[in-house]
Amino acid sequence: MLPSQRATLVKNIAHELGFAFVGIARAERMDEEARRLEAWLRQGRHGAMHWMENHFELRTDPTKLVPGAKSVVSLLYNYFPADDSLSREAPKISRYAYGEDYHRVVRDKLRTLFHRLEESLGAAIDGRVFVDSAPVLERDWAKRAGVGWTGKNTLLINPRAGSYFFLAELISDLDLAPDTQIKDYCGTCTACIDACPTEAISPEGYLLDGSKCISYLTIELREAIPAEFAGRMEGWAFGCDICQEVCPWNRFSTPHAEPAFAPHPDLPALSPREMREMTEEVFQRVFQKSAVKRTKFTGLRRNIDFLED
Name one GO biological process term (predicted). Predict the structure, then answer.
């Protein structure tokens, strides 16, 4: 089978499993991206996410993660909800966390993809699958694979469907025909820069100070939220979608078709007041399978209390 035929096979199976877009890049060290990451870390823009300083070579060279790797398959899985009311009234929850934790849902689909490829090719594949679970520069690989460009808000944007996607990868020894990168279509737009209430995006765009991002403050930061952000959180209690909400390309977003991403039945029924007065028992019941559990009850309580101060 030719590399182009294997690439088509990968994409066909991935689409059957629900992945919206699939692209392929050659597995090689990312020299330019490595220099950019090094500078970003040196400037301390990762805040308290010290784990980002670890495994630098693994992050920038897929052949260190998977020896003998020849290709990186980048896949996009839609999570845009049909009803996004949970992100409209405080305390707000980021759209990606409405339903079950995407790590498990998407990883299961990746494993199915892997096994079906082995069955179709009649041979074992030396490779690994990833979904925000290892030192992989996901957006950079998706950009290289041609499934989008990195927007001024630093998120991956697909010209046909916007940015409400989970990113995933299959790094393997499969020899696959690579795709071509697409151009940047942000143009002169500064909507995301202008809308960010904490000024986390640089004035020129394409650079995010993670330590100022509301998603970081409400999820990654374990200490108290700095007082300088009081009154600037725009009602977000877990994550933040502001830079996506204002992005013109997200007018092309369409609702996902993944049952696992539907919110727990009790979640939409909670009033803003009930959210603010939530007990740990309710938290455990409503968010037991959600990514919100990552912040724990104490973290969500801290975030909600900070909004009230």
Answer: tRNA queuosine(34) biosynthetic process
